[in-house]
User: Which sequence fits this backbone?
């Protein structure tokens, strides 16, 4: 999937993947896609909850080799 | 639509109990909430510029997981609190959990409002110059004026 910016959240624990995803989105423009790579198993549910509550659509979630890759579209 | 609101009362000043207000505060702010944290009694320690005095003790804390079983008599020995704090901080770091300083900064960056209890400052004769800047001082009524209109209100 194409993306405009990548945020490497590997090794970070709750709440950093979410709080810093929010920060990464700040300077992006509407419609751009942020790729987030996390190793925190909790972020699987948290990222979906973040997307739902902030209205930034979660386009895709991929789990591979103990990593979680999220594509979040800026609303 | 107006933002949702969350208010937290932070009353504890130990390392373990310092985390929930800052974690929930920074997360709620990231989710678009207006957040206010009211620091009172021992919670005021969390507003110090220097957070090195915020510690954890295994004493009277039987739920704290220990690498080896430790009798209470041993936990009482001088230096045990510093050692437990050092070990806990190492563990937090190893697991990628942010430091208190970092979480507090993330809260401030996200415009989480910190209110310090004026009564406690007077009671314990705290020196305001030891606290971080950008905090307000107020009392119970100040807290209510924000808390009365919140969606989430927590006591930690």
Assistant:
């Amino acid at each position: 999937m194409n993306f405009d910016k990548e945020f490497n959240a590997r090794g970070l624990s709750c709440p950093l993947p979410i709080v810093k995803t929010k920060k990464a989105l700040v300077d992006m423009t509407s419609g751009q896609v942020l790729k987030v790579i996390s190793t925190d198993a909790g972020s699987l549910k948290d990222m979906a909850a973040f997307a739902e509550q902030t209205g930034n659509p979660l386009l895709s979630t991929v789990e591979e080799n103990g990593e979680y890759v999220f594509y979040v579209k800026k609303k | 639509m107006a933002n949702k609101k969350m208010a937290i009362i932070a009353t504890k000043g130990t390392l373990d109990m310092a985390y929930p207000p800052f974690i929930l505060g920074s997360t709620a702010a990231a989710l678009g909430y207006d957040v206010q944290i009211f620091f009172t009694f021992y919670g005021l320690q969390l507003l110090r510029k220097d957070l090195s005095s915020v510690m954890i003790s295994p004493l009277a804390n039987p739920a704290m997981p220990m690498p080896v079983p430790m009798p209470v008599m041993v936990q009482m020995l001088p230096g045990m609190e510093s050692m437990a704090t050092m070990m806990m901080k190492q563990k937090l770091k190893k697991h990628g959990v942010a430091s208190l300083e970092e979480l507090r900064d993330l809260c401030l960056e996200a415009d989480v409002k910190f209110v310090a209890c004026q009564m406690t400052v007077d009671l314990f004769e705290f020196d305001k110059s030891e606290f971080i800047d950008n905090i307000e001082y107020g009392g119970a009524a100040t807290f209510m004026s924000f808390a009365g209109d919140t969606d989430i209100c927590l006591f930690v």
The first strand of chain A starts at residue 5 and ends at 9. Chain A has one domain: 5-73. The interface with chain B takes residues 11-16, 18-19, 21-23, 39-40, 50, 53-54 of chain A (CB under 8 Å).
